[in-house]
Design a protein that fits this description.
Low-confidence stretches: 1-13, 519-530
Structural class: alpha+beta
CATH superfamily of the largest domain: Nucleotide cyclase, GGDEF domain
GO cellular component, one term: plasma membrane
Radius of gyration: 34 Å
Number of domains: 3
Number of strands: 17
GO molecular function: ATP binding; GTP binding; guanylate cyclase activity; natriuretic peptide receptor activity; peptide hormone binding; protein kinase activity
Number of helices: 16
EC number: 4.6.1.2
Enzyme class: lyase
Shape: elongated
CATH architecture of the largest domain: 2-Layer Sandwich
Membrane topology: Single-pass type I membrane protein
Length: about 525
């Protein structure tokens, strides 16, 4: 979307967009139960449709279907003036600032001469910027309907908007919008562009927004007393611009310049700075400025892309060195690796109670969680098949005997994560994961050319799978081979399970991995799930 405001948390809220008659349009929703199309509203709509100016966002129409009541306007892809000013990657020289200020003034000048006669809601969030960096005003007219749009804003957004409102309108809200009030708001926008800071930004560091609004409402107590206004002086602010801004902020509305004299003054200031004012010159300079900013952004993004591409190709060459050249890959033998298998006990029953999309969503959430955890260990994710998750360490990069330690620490971390994992469509149900781990030799290789897969082969793979299928929910089942290596490292809490008959392997002595006291990583016990 294009129009944005900042919430109290500093997050931007963008307007919705839609596709209408082959073009993208901006949609501003209104909280109203019904829209009465009386004569007054119809006249307002006609006046809005008749408005046409380069510095006004074109009014397209009004959607009156409840609950989708909305105002539809021209879409400006560069966002709001607030977005431009807060984007540090966009450099604003005097010419760029002059163009923005000039566009605001010209838009207001046209409105003051039109049937609407005033804007009444000027602020940097409803000054939009199109693809050519031409500033366009929005949110003018239709006062009875726009009250509903304002009600949807939070307190912080409303207070921020009120900083642009003239003091006399704060004191008498029933007075309605005035041309003098628009000039005050234009002064706020000029100050914002000149300093690249929001109104009263310096003051807001020590005061709440509500306090600032109260001080704006309060009239000067004496002839020597100055009205409360934001700071505009600075190294980058021309003194003549500063004086013009202060004139727009005059306490007495009659002392403020009208829009015609304001436009003449800004043109005069620009001429003194030897800047061309032709329309073509303006456009060419804007596009040149934008191109320069874009080149810098492209260079930064390209450098980041090349770095990521280099990392990806390095990994590809490590895993699939010959495959990238269209050749077959020779299998490689590894003397000692540790393989991890896990699955979800009762997954078939859970799937039968869920829709296919819910099952996919569950597995995606779970494996996204797992993938984030295994990044912290020296392991390689081999594959996932349904609810089965397979990981290895010591392949493709050998790491001595550290593979057993890495896999077991990873298994403890995954089991702990399962304890806090929640199924979206069954919030009260928890997952019961079984884990099996075995250490031994294996062969690794790439199978296929069109859709290649890096696969592990050997008895170690089968044994690790049997360790998982013969395990228990919420426990880590390890073989005696894995246990022997873990004892060399120390610090692991291991409990003898006893003799277990593994299909195709006979009776073997196996163990439960309960935790790692050295790293304070404890497996989640079954009691935590009941």
């Amino acid at each position: 979307g294009s129009v944005s405001l900042k919430t109290e948390e500093g997050k931007q809220v963008f307007t919705q967009t839609a596709f209408y008659q082959g073009r993208t349009v901006a949609v501003k929703r209104i909280s109203q139960d019904e829209v009465k199309m009386n004569r007054e509203i119809l006249i307002e709509l006609k006046n809005m449709r008749d408005l046409e100016h380069p510095n006004l966002a074109r009014f397209i129409g009004l959607c009156v279907d409840v609950p989708n009541v909305a105002i539809v306007n021209e879409y400006c892809p560069k966002g709001s003036l607030m977005d431009i000013l807060q984007n540090d990657s966009i450099k604003l020289d005097w010419f760029f600032k002059y163009s923005l200020i000039s566009d605001v003034i010209k838009g207001v000048q046209y409105l003051h001469r039109s049937e609407l006669s005033v804007h009444g809601r000027l602020n940097s969030s409803n000054c939009l910027v199109d693809s050519r960096f031409v500033l366009k005003l929005i949110d003018f007219g239709l006062p009875s309907l726009r009250e509903g749009a304002s009600q949807a804003l939070g307190d912080h957004a409303l207070l921020t908007k009120s900083l642009y409102v003239a003091p006399e309108l704060h004191r008498d809200p029933k007075r309605g919008p005035t041309k003098e009030g628009d000039i005050y708001s234009v002064g706020m926008l000029m100050g914002e562009v000149a300093t690249r800071q929001g109104p009263y930004e310096a003051e807001s560091k020590n005061m709440e927004l509500s306090e600032i609004v109260d001080k704006i409402k309060c009239p000067p107590s004496g002839s020597l007393s100055q009205p409360f206004r934001p700071q505009v002086a600075g190294e980058n602010v021309d003194s003549s611009i500063s004086e013009l801004i202060k004139a727009c902020w005059a306490e007495d509305p009659k002392d403020r310049p009208n829009v015609n004299s304001l436009n003449a003054s800004i043109v005069k200031i620009n001429r003194k700075r030897n800047t061309g004012t032709g329309i073509l010159d303006n456009l060419l300079n804007r596009m040149e400025q934008y191109a320069n900013n874009l080149e810098e952004l492209v260079e930064e993004r390209t450098a980041a892309f090349l770095e990521e591409k280099k990392r990806a190709e390095t990994l590809l060459y490590e895993l699939l060195p010959s495959l990238k050249q269209g050749k077959a890959v020779d299998p490689e033998s590894y003397d000692s690796v540790t393989i991890f298998f896990s699955d979800i006990k009762g997954f078939t029953e859970l799937s039968a109670q869920s829709t296919p999309s819910q099952v996919v969503m569950l597995l995606n959430d779970l494996y996204t969680c797992f993938d984030g955890i295994i990044e912290h260990f020296d392991v390689y994710k081999v594959e996932t098949i349904g609810d089965a998750y397979m990981v290895v360490s010591g392949v493709p990069v050998r790491n001595g005997n550290a593979h057993a330690r890495e896999i077991c620490n990873m298994a403890l971390a995954l089991l702990k994560a399962v304890g806090s994992f929640r199924i979206r469509h069954k919030r009260d149900q928890k997952l019961h994961m079984r884990v099996g781990i075995h250490t031994g030799p294996c062969v690794a290789g790439v199978v296929g050319l069109k859709m290649p897969r890096y696969c592990l082969f050997g008895d170690t793979v089968n044994t690790a799978s049997r360790m998982e299928s013969n395990g228990e929910a919420l426990k880590i089942h390890i073989s005696s081979d894995t246990k022997e290596i873990l004892e060399d490292f120390g610090g692991f809490n291991i409990e003898l399970r006893g003799a277990v008959a593994l299909k195709g392997k006979g009776v073997q002595t196996t163990y439960w991995l309960l935790g790692n006291s050295e790293k304070c990583v404890n497996a989640v016990t079954e009691s935590e799930f009941t």
